[in-house]
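Hi support team,

I submitted a single chain yesterday and got back a structure, but I'm not sure I'm reading the token output correctly. Could someone confirm the output below corresponds to the sequence I sent? I've pasted both exactly as they appear in my results page.

Thanks,
R.
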Amino acid sequence: MTVFIIRRLSQSLLVLFITSIIVFAGIYAIGNPIDILIAPDATFAEREQAIKALGLDQSLIEQYGTFLWNALHGDLGRSFVFNQPSIDLILNRMPATLELAFVALFLSLAIGIPLGLWSGLRPNSVLDETVMTGSILGFSLPNFWQGMMLIMIFSVWLGWLPSTGRGEVDTVLGMRTSLTSWSGISHLILPAFNLALFKISLVTRLTRSGVRENMPLDFVKFARAKGLSERRIVSVHVLKNIMIPIVTVVGVEFGGIIAFAIVTETIFAWPGMGKLLIDSIMRLDRPVVVAYLLVVVTLFIVINFVVDILYSLLDPRIRLGSAA
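Hi R., thanks for writing in. Yes, this is the structure output for that exact sequence:
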């Protein structure tokens, strides 16, 4: 276990270093932030002063070296637009994104697992065909199109749910959340469901496949021979077996939920990290873009590490030290 942790940490640092180089070079090549930040009628002296104040008078290598040195000391740079530390802007938006991601993850499991169980226990039935067709649509339809359809149906036509914003937000245990009031929950339903649609399809198919693979196995026949009810066999023995691949895939996909929240947050004007990223790209706010991507990569690394731990707990035969 110790060897696994040390190896994972060294790999993570290498990934972060390579990511920082790629991101910094990529955002540097997009354009010159001064063209957006400075008024067109600014004098040459004002323009030069702004370039020097933002450190844009240095070469790419010098700028990256300054960024890397500051990052090693916990400073990911100051926003060109807001003149605040980039990490503060991201951390202020992170609770909204994490709330959206966790609710989407909950919906994907709460809806996907029962649908997969029902479909797997009734193969080739009308229910099975309906669920599988629905999962294909969940995989195939673009996320932004699904979001616009949800807004058109539930906000414009029916008027049941709001289409943008976060609603009322309260502070619980030092964290701002919209889950404490109906206003906040009603604003959360559409974006969370939109973000969860792809994962619902994924969990449904994983669960169905696991049920179909496990039901003919000997341990199920032995459980039936012992006189256990079908419900207990499925809910205890079969479900425990199929949860291992589900936890692994969904855990890794949770990072994807955070990353793909960019589209959902933009469509529903959800004030999270993804919307901050889009706004920063439009304004060429380099420090915020670089800091955001490094934070997301770090979240991916942490999530993958936690998934490995959970995987070993669900299946004691797995040893992280040897797997690494």
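A quick pointer for reading it: The radius of gyration is 24 Å. Let us know if anything else looks off.

Best,
Support desk
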